[in-house]
Structure formats: C-alpha cells, structure tokens
Description:
The structure is a single chain. By secondary structure, the chain is mostly helical. It has a single domain (7-407), classed as MFS general substrate transporter like domains (Growth Hormone, Chain: A). Helix content is 77%, strand content 0%. The protein is built from 15 helices and no strands. Helix 6 (135-165) packs antiparallel against helix 7 (170-192). 56% of the residues are buried.
Amino acid sequence: MSxxxxxxxxxxxxxxxxxxxxxxxxxxxxxFVLFSPERQADPVAAALAFSVVLLPYSIxxxxxxxxxxxFSRQRxxxxxxxIRALNLVAVAFLVARSSTGxxxxxxxxxxxxxxxxxLAGLSAGLPLVVLKEKLVVANAFAVTGGTIGVVIGGGLxxxxxxxxxxxxxxxxSAGLIVLTASSGYLLSGLLVKRLRRFEIxxxxxxxxxxxxxxxxxxxxxxxxxxxxxxxxxxxxxAIQRGGLTSLTMMVLLLERNTYHNPKNPDAGLSGFAxxxxxxxxxxxxxxxxxxxxxxxxxxxLWIRIAMVIATPTLLLYIALPNVFTxxxxxxxxxxxxxxxxxxxxxxxxxxxxxxxxxxxxxxYDMAVNAAIVLGAGIAAALLPNSGKSLAVPLVIVCxxxxxxxxxxxxxxxxxxxxPTT
Length: 421
C-alpha cells in the first residue's frame, strides 16, 4: 500500500495479533461464565459480564490519555502487553480452579483495562504512520482487521474448547485457553519492539504536571467542543455501539436459552459463534465500502446514512421474529456500525492535533464504554431469560433515528463545522 509509511504494517501486526488473542480470551470467559453447564445465563449475568470489564476503564481513562500524550506510546503498548500476558496467567489459574469470586473479577478488570489502553495508544499513533488523506482506508484496515481478528480468535477459542473438553473438565479447558491467550499477548508485546520509540508518538513532549488526569481530560473535551463535528460523531458512535451491545445480549440469550436446549450450552455457544460470524462478514463489508463511499459523498453524510440504514432490518425482525431475520439484522447492524466507527475515527484523527490526540481518544473510549454499559443495562431491564423481546430492537431503532435527525442533522454536523487542524 503506497499510501502507508513504514510503521503501518508493524502497527497493524501488533493490533491484529492482540485482537485475535482478545477473541480467544473472551471466548474462554464466555464459556466459563455464560455457557458453562452448571451456570444458567440470564440478562443480569450477561449485563454484568459486559459492564464489569468496561466501567473501571471509564474511571482511569483520563489518566490513560495523559500517559499517551506524555510518554512514548510504543513503550506503553509494549510493556502493557507484557503485563497483560502475566495477568492472564493468574486468570488461567483462577478459572481452572472454578473461581468466580472477587479475585477473578479483579484480574479480569485489569486485563480489559490494559486492553483499552493499548487500543487507545495504537489509534492515537495511527495518523503518524499513514498519509492524512488515507486515514479512512487505514482505519478500515486497522479497526476492521482487528474486529475480524476478535471474531477469528473467538472461533479458535471455541475450537480449542471442543478439543480440550475431550480430555479435561470444562473449567480446566477454559483455563488452558486463557493460558494460550497469555502467550499471544506476550508475542504481541515482542512485535511492538519493531517500532521505534517515538514512531507512533507523541511528537511534541511536554513536562509532566501535577494536573494530569481529570483536568487534562476536561481539556481534551474542551478541544472537542471546538470541533463539534468530531464530538457529535463520537457521541453517535457511542450510541451505535450501545445499541449493538443490546442486540448482542439478546442474541446471546436467544441462542443460549431459546434456539437451543438450555441443558446443552455447547450448542448455544456454537449458535452464538455462528451469529458472530455473520456479524463478522457485515463488519468486513462495512469497512470495504466505506473508503469508496466517503470519496463520493464525504464522511459526514456517510455517517448519517450509516446510522439509519440498518433500522429497516430491525423492523423486519420485529414483524417476523425468527433466527433468520435476527441474522439479517445482526449483519446489517455490524456492517453499518463498522462504517460509522472507521469513518468517525478518521474524522477525529484528522481534526485533532497530535498533542491532544491521546486524551481525545481516551475520552472517545470512555464515551463508547459508557454507552456499552448503558446498552447492557437497558437490555437487562427489558429482556426475559429467553431473550424473546420486541422492545429491545424497537428501542435501538428509536435511538438511531433520534441520533441521526437531531444530533447529526446537516446544519450542525457537516464538513464546515470547523477547519481541520
């Protein structure tokens, strides 16, 4: 790819390997917590599974942004991968011992908190290894390749589980899969060494001050207030992700408790994996078509269109609720969700100076995480154990339409909102 500078392939290797490993790790946790024969899945348990790995990052997020703007992002990503690999050794030990208490929760929180730090650092550094006019294409490669990597990793994790279950108990099998993921993170950390110390920034180092953290997070938010199209795009992306989380919870419960015998969680896990694969194809399509469409109609109009284009498929599921219409809705929501994400990532990267980019992407992650937790909470309140609900897709439709026609209306969300800096 001639548009890329030398560091892009190295950055992508780190991101993609890490996210394949994320998929392996997450599949092991899902099978241990939600698809274990002795544990019944319900909306509250599913909501807690989503929330417990995201809320803590929303607390430490401001300090993440400060770190990314003041110290070598390459070093931060490298050592974070090493710490994450070591942390997963402890998780593997606890899972193998069937521990579901506070100690396991703590180590899982650490793992996912580090994960968000790594992804924020790589996103903040991306504009330094790619030409500015090719940011949409680069984000399509980086974000979409990573998301597909998570799906592939999830499939590998499920395959490992079936292989290990033939010789080990369910919990020992899950623990061994987590240990496998640990080695993946270690390798990802070693790959970071191929990047130069400041190759992914920050370009302009400042003296560290005592005002780091929330004060600088507020400064990042104030920067976004001067780039209102970026701020509106971030909020829209967060709402889209919150809706996708609600649908994911509904699919999880339907596959676990309705479309398959609840006494056969392996069948439910396979059904859920199949639905994620369908979504994975949607993700790939969304990334593939976005750069060409953006060249034709621009980032702002494409984000507006992508927010609403999937709503008819949700209405189809409401009218004809079955596994086939659910699969159609999952495909189109994943497709348009990825289109919104990669396009808005490029919009934010092109608007924000590197001096503030780490803090802005930390805020971006916090907003998305908060919306995911909110989406999980709404789904938990509306979903029965069976997962059968028309209220959840209807709420998603309303949220997407309101976001498009109020938050993203043409008069306030356009390429003329603020000049690129």
